[in-house]
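Data deposition worksheet. Section B asks for the primary sequence of the deposited chain exactly as it was used as input, without tags or linkers unless they were present during the calculation. Section C holds the resulting structure in token form. Section D is free text for depositor observations; keep each observation to a single sentence. Incomplete worksheets are returned to the depositor.
Section A, Depositor: J.P.
Section B:
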Amino acid sequence: MEKITSREDLKAYMGETGFLPLYRNNIEGFSVEELAGPGHFRAGEKESDPLCWKRDLSRDTDLALASFFDGREGFVSKEMFPVFAAYRRRAQILKEKEEGWWERLREWINREGFINRKAAAGILDNMGAGRTCDRFLKRLQAGSWLIQEYEKKEIRYVLPEQRWGQDYVSSGPATKEEAWVLMTDPVLTLYPCLTQRQLLVVLGVGKDRRSVVRQKHNYPDNLFERLEETDSLSQMTSGTGKREKGISMDRIFDQLPDRRQREDLADRLLDHVRGKERELLLLRYKDQMTVPKICEATGLSDEYVRKRIRNGIRRIQMMDLYSWEG
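Section C:
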């Protein structure tokens, strides 16, 4: 596999595949990080480190940069974008309330030319969804509705239609299935041994991706049925009033005897928790340590540990961000 040592190399590789994740993923060797070679990625060298190029490339009219791949950044070429959008916009289905949020954000972008995180958070906060801002922006990028442009260190979100026009962006295949074939054929040419499951983990979104991720971790069916009955983690962990008691965090993890399952679920639930609360929640639910064991390992008091764990769970509940959609 050829190495990527310059912007020109990256653009040439994109001409073959049509897209490329920035970070390593489920397809070995299919990322800028791996193709850049050891000692270059994150090295901080302007000429050889792709992370130093991405800000300039975010404004390149031949490419689009966004969190396209499982919430992480990657590139899609101009030539591939209509096909990519034809699949993603049909597979990444927004809920009714999310359609309302997206309409407000789009109005702002059409008026101001872009939107940054601060403005997006303000709009969503006024609609009672401020705590979902980061996750929602990633969902919009995964659906190819938003792309990124860097202005110095600030990330600005713009519409791909602003860069290439509505007619061009919407010129892809008429069906999701046809778009999927056209999107994955170039990758299969370079990686002929890939399975559909591997492709869906990296390139799929929505129900397409959830089906294989669920299969990968072999979660109990009853757990998924229960999780998908609610719109939020708040309902799941604290109940919805008198009608339903709800399921506690302990009960959720009790249904996952396999360590790998617990680790994956803990990482997802704690994605937006930071600091000491995240550290203690990971020990409690990912490593399955009891509170006395946590106190012994950290030197913290029982009261402090229990309080921080309670606060962390409450923070997750308030975020209303739990979702299994890619």
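Section D:
The chain has two domains: 1-199, 221-319.
The longest helix spans residues 302-319.
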